Amino acid sequence: MSDLVKYEKQGAIALLTLNRPEKLNALDYATNDRLMTLLDGIEGDPAVRAVVLTGAGERAFSAGGDIHEFAQSVKAGVETAVRDFCRRGQSMTARLESFPKPVIAAVNGIAFGGGCEITEAVHLAVASENALFAKPEIKIGIPPTFGGTQRLPRLAGRKRALELLLTGDTFSPWRAYEMGLVNKVVPHDRLLPAAFELAERIIRHSPLAASRIITAVTRGINTAIAEGLLIEQEQFARMAATRDVHEGLEAWIGRRAPQYTGS
């Protein structure tokens, strides 16, 4: 099970690799659970400041849920299918969305179904020119189940999202960029370097401030502006008493590079 998601630490950045290339990195239950376990460990490791998530092999980031396994859950009944497939997948994408350290998807190939939903959920995404996206769940008679009916419309707008959800058609990385699903599209051989460069640009700042920003955006984006501003104020108040704030201010005034400690 430990091989289903590879974990490498490169300085302050964790590289997680979905590792079922022979199955196009399909998200079976064990892979999903392994990813969640690794995220728990990374959250508790102060030496890790950001996460890059990619797929093994040259063909796929992730082709989505493991349909053969899912089909067995459907045969076992609705309650089993909802518990084992839908709730598990939604918990995983919600964990990525609210993770307190920046998570960057490096989309190296096919990102269908659950693979696309991971891309929707993470904080930032870089796509290879070889990437290909789709919301093909309608082709097997179901709606997306890992959050795709909710996050894609919020990213792309209702009509553009519905076109993709209702047709199941593939779409290019450039269209994904146009819709706000990814931050940039790069040549395939530049994918991981570009993702790591983006991570490095983030981790030079206070890790506490990054976490507070992620929390404010994640919690506030689906609220009324007044409630969102209260969330923003709350996150500022949590930061105001930290050493990192004082260090940042003193470094700015002293015209030097700050030395953040995450405290």
Task: Describe what you observe in this structure.
The protein is globular, with a radius of gyration of 19 Å. Helix 1 packs parallel to helix 3 (78-98), helix 3 runs parallel beside helix 4 and helix 5 (148-156) packs across helix 6 (158-167). The protein contains 11 helices and 10 strands. The model has no long low-confidence stretch (mean pLDDT 95). By secondary structure, the chain is of the alpha/beta class. Helix content is 51%, strand content 16%. It has a 6-stranded mixed sheet with strand order 1-2-3-5-7-10, sandwiched between helices. A 4-stranded mixed sheet has the order 4-6-8-9. The longest helix is centred in the middle third of the chain and has 21 residues, at 78-98.
List the main descriptive attributes of the protein structure presented here.
about 15% strand, 11 helices, 10 strands, 4-stranded mixed beta sheet, 6-stranded mixed beta sheet, alpha/beta
